[in-house]
Design a protein that fits this description.
The complex is a heterodimer.
Chain A (H helix, E strand, L loop, with lengths): L2 H28 L4 H43 L5 H32 L6 H17 L8 H19 L3 H46 L10 H4 L11 H48 L13 H12 L2
Helix pairs in contact in A: 1-2, 2-3, 2-6, 2-8, 2-9, 3-4, 4-5, 5-6, 6-8, 8-9
Chain B lengths: L1 H24 L3 H22 L8 H23 L3 H20 L2
Helix pairs in contact in B: 1-2, 1-3, 1-4, 2-4, 3-4
Classes of the chains: A mainly alpha, B mainly alpha.
Amino acid sequence: MPSNARSSAANLKMRMAIATVCLGCLALVVGCKTSEDAAAAATQMSATAKSLSDYYSALSVILSGTDQIYSLNEELYSKPYSAESRQGLNTTQAELAKRIAIAADLSALAGSFAKLTSSTAPADVAAAGNKLEGEVDNLASIKVSSGEQNAIKSALQLFVTAVQEHKEHEAAQAMDSLASSLSALFDKEAPSWKSVYDVYVQLGTTLAGNLADQNAVNNSAILKPVLDPFGLMPSAPAPDLSTKLAPLVKKQILARQTALVDSYGNATEAMSKSLQEMSQRIHLVATDKAMAFRAPPVTVATVEQWATQVLSY
Amino acid sequence: MANALSDVQATFLSLDAQYNVLFEGCKNQTQRDALAAQYSTAQQNYQSALNATLTDDDAQVALLNTQLKAANAEVVKATAQLGNISKVIDDITTAVSLGTQLVAMV
């Protein structure tokens, strides 16, 4: 046998041996029937937590938009924007920042969880868990969810302890508890975040309408569908034409308002379903049952689509 | 929580939507100052309510919530008529004041 062929065969044997050991360890780690389930559970948690982080990041952009609307309203229409209101908005923004960090770290932690059996991974997971635990400790202002936040803290403590003591099955159970608490936290806080979004859209609708009334909007875009087929570009309309177009522009603003509210509702429902599905799947793995579906929840795509759109504002 | 927040939010958004019309309708600086002060308080109430815990189970919160709903309806009615700006500002003041009491119960 040529030397390079012998070398390839040896490499293949070595890789197969490593893969066998890894797969066996993964199966032990989460006490599940197949190692594929363990890897899939970790991957799903990582993908869902990433979507959650993006969802909160998009809300942070929305809140910055509200701050901008408050400032514009103060300058243009003498609507007061007090230091107290500014402070209140900053407090909400700080709470969102904590949730963005927690969800992003949880995504990384789930990735580490899949590598739990390697020699250095337990220390990595414990370090990531300790960091996450500290961040969860800082969640306080949205007090409606204190029960869910405490449940997350308890699950993280159990998880970190289990990893440090190499109690793999307990680690999987703690992840199970963590996933269900995270899902409950999201659902409990949903009305507050919906309020943030609704207020942004409603304030924006009023401001856009006021600007249209004052001919402060270039209405030419509304002519585009008519002129495009003829290869013509609209120019900035003269004031009298702009005034005539204003009612159509306001109609478009109202239609867009409805679409924006609907898209947020769909994204929130999809996020909630993704978290619930992830939680149910991890529970199956933690209780030694086989997972029927191994791909990340399909609803994650709806969240990502909405978040990408908002993050481009 | 959700109901109390949504009612404080409704007061603020209703005032924001009608602010320019009401401002134009004010007959003197005193009325304009009163309107601006109510807007500022309604905005603060909303931002505070968002960061706070309001329990609808609490009997006193529930009572204030009911009163605030009625006051919000009065503001909408009075704003639509716009005949007596002083009455409109009084109605707004009542609604905003109820919102302040709600937020203070955190």
